[in-house]
Design a protein that fits this description.
By secondary structure, the chain is of the alpha/beta class. Helix content is about 20%, strand content about 30%.
């Protein structure tokens, strides 16, 4: 199997078509004990989903989370990794304007606050159009014990800023997060500017106020410039004119939409046996049942360079018969199968997966 596997299905037709894994030989799973299908959640224990063969739907215990026909997750306090003005902060405010947004120094602090009930939810970036998956979130997701309850797409616009009185012709060094610097390489090369890495974009902007040498600038959001009293020297300097980051909204308990809710994503984590064709056989049920597979990412486990654990996203609800049949097929080939979240697609995400991202790219309330 490929060590780092990232399959995106943004141009796939919704509700039909075939998924990866089509056309492979059927394997044998005689004598295997199929695992329980579980939904991640804290504060009430895991919610076990009992699957039944032959077209019967999955049955869910509702105690750990709420179920509603219309998802309207409305947290009081939402936490993110970074400082005010960071893009995660901007995404929190755009998606949840009534919530109190609080920055944290580390991802572990973000997760811990939600686990302990000191915050209602967390906003963690999971992938970027240019940079791909966010490694830190990807590695922590399987064991953080939080449920994915939503997604937010945030347009990333990078601006060059400096203290008042500074002019662009005097700038020699540009400070920002490494990922942001990687997205403005052409701009830096064209103007012979030296990149300087910082822990996040907002921190880079804040440091300029402390050391206004006149030779340093930062690359960050418009909001970071306002918060730290900086002047924007150049707007939208990113090498690619359109960029977007997708974030997960995570909570201690699942927020389960009804099976009839349109535009739902299910995020799964599963472990496979390290045998030839195991992955193709595991995901073939999605193709056979017309379930669109939109994300597939691998993990290296047990210190080996062999991918046997996978993060998977599909369109549909576990209670819908085609999805239930596909999950039943998946279970035959896994030693562990966990639902990390069932949540509605954000409006921008629907367009992104269809290959027609709107010009605004703004985040909106889930």
């Amino acid at each position: 199997m490929v060590s780092f596997l990232s399959l995106r299905a943004r141009a796939s037709k919704r509700g039909g078509g075939r998924s990866p894994g089509e056309g492979h030989t059927r394997g044998s799973d005689t004598g295997r004990t199929r695992p329980a299908l579980r939904v991640v959640g804290r504060g009430g224990g895991d919610a076990a989903l009992r699957s039944v063969r032959a077209g019967r739907s999955l049955v869910t215990r509702q105690e750990p989370g709420r179920t509603s026909s219309r998802m309207r997750f409305d947290p009081d306090v939402i936490v993110y990794h970074g400082s005010p003005g960071a893009f995660a902060h901007v995404a929190c405010q755009a998606a949840f304007p009534r919530a109190r947004c609080s920055g944290c120094d580390s991802l572990f602090q973000v997760i811990d606050l939600v686990r302990k009930g000191k915050a209602s939810a967390a906003m963690l970036p999971c992938e970027n159009i240019l940079a791909g998956r966010v490694p830190d979130t990807h590695l922590l997701l399987p064991d953080m014990g939080l449920a994915i309850v939503g997604e937010v797409f945030q347009r990333i616009e990078l601006h060059l800023m400096a203290p008042e009185g500074c002019t662009f012709d005097r700038i020699e060094r540009v400070h920002s997060h490494p990922v942001a610097l990687a997205q403005i390489q052409r701009f830096l090369s064209r103007h012979a500017l030296v990149p300087v890495e910082a822990s996040n974009t907002a921190t880079a902007a804040a440091r300029l106020r402390q050391d206004p040498s006149g030779r340093d600038a930062a690359v960050a959001s418009q909001q970071a410039a306002r918060i730290h009293g900086l002047k924007v020297l150049k707007r939208n300097i990113e090498d690619v004119p359109f960029n977007m980051t997708r974030s997960y909204v995570l909570a201690a308990k699942p927020e389960l939409p009804c099976a009839e809710t349109p535009g739902v994503l299910t995020c799964l984590l599963f472990d496979l046996r390290n045998t030839p064709g195991a992955l193709s056989q595991a995901v073939k049920g999605f193709a056979d049942n017309g379930v669109n597979l939109t994300r597939l990412e691998s993990y290296l486990v047990d210190g080996q360079f062999v991918a046997t654990r996978f993060l998977c996203e599909i369109e549909g609800h576990p209670h819908q018969p085609p999805v239930a049949r596909a999950l039943d097929r998946l279970k035959r080939h896994t030693s562990r199968l966990t639902i990390l979240g069932v949540f509605p697609m954000q409006g921008t995400g629907v367009h992104a997966r269809a290959g027609a991202i709107p010009a605004s790219g703004r985040a909106c309330v889930l």
